[in-house]
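Incident log, entry 3
Record: Helix-turn-helix transcriptional regulator (117 residues)
Problem: checksum mismatch between cached and fresh output.
Input:
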Amino acid sequence: MVKICNYDFDENVIEEHRDVYGIAYTQNILSGRYKNLILWYLKESDYRFGEIKKFLTSISQGSLTKQLKELENDGLINRIVYAEVPPKVVYSLTNKGQALMPIIDMMEAYGREYRDI
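Fresh output:
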């Protein structure tokens, strides 16, 4: 199976298993309990941290901060800071994040169809 280190993929594994690299890469950037939900929530509009926290009621502030930073580092979301007092921070999807929406939508459709089986 593909082994993923903390920062990237092992180059030897990529060469040996090029056929599953895309799956492993996508799984790696979406790993995290709430990342799929954060991306789904941001698909319709830009939101502030507090609005995302209100949507994901069971997530801790620390976990939300961590997952937002990871999504930003992976290039899936933008974090825009407005020079106001208090500071206003807004999160939105990047083009790379928008490109994941068909996958997120398919996951949602799959869950609707098979959740009661």
